[in-house]
Amino acid sequence: MAITVNGADVALPDDPRVSLLDHLRETLHLSGTKKGCDQGACGACTVLAGGQRILSCLALAVQYDGQQITTIEGIGTATDLHPLQQAFVEHDGFQCGYCTPGQICSAVAMVEEARAGMPSHVSDDLLADHFALSHDELRERMSGNLCRCGAHNGIIAAIRATYADEAQTQDPLAVETAA
C-alpha cells in the first residue's frame, strides 16, 4: 500500500490507526501541516487529497491508499512561491504563521470548488455553474480555517488579490474587487 505525497510515492504506515496528519509529520517529516485541535475544528491540518481539501487529523492514512496528497510543501517552495503564498506575504495574511499552511491549502481547493459550481451557505443561486468569490463567499468558504491571531482580513485580501488577476484574464471565476 502506498500514497503519493507531493509527487513522491511513499509507503503507508503498518498500523492502520495512524492518522494522515501523524503520518505526514512523524513518519515523512513534513512539518508544514500543523496539528492544531486534533479534532477537526480548526483547519490547521488541511491538506489536499486528489485536489480536495481534507482535515488530515480526522483521516486515517490507509484511507488514502493509491491517492495523491498535496501538503503546503507541495504547493510552493521558499524559492518558488505559489502566487497565493506571495499574496499572504504582501497582504499580511499571517502573524504567527501556524494556521497559514492550512489556510493556503484550503484556499487553493476552495477556488476550485467555486469554479466547479459547489455552492456555499451564502450562495444565492444553488444551481450556478460557478460562484463569484465575493467578500461574504470567501469568508464563508474559509470559515473552517481559524486564525487565532486575527489575520483573517489579510487572508481574505490575499485570496482576493491572487484570484482577481485571474478574473481579468476572462476566467469563468469572477472575483469581486470591491470590499
From TrEMBL:
Keyword Metal-binding: yes
UniProt xrefs under Gene3D superfamilies: 3.10.20.30, [2Fe-2S]-binding domain (1.10.150.120)
The 2Fe-2S ferredoxin-type domain, residue ranges: 1-75
UniProt xrefs under Pfam families: Fer2 (PF00111), Fer2_2 (PF01799)
GO molecular function, one term: 2 iron, 2 sulfur cluster binding
Protein keywords: 2Fe-2S, Iron, Iron-sulfur, Metal-binding, Oxidoreductase
Keyword Metal-binding among record annotations: yes
Protein name per Swiss-Prot or TrEMBL: (2Fe-2S)-binding
Species of the source: Rhodopseudomonas palustris (strain BisB18)
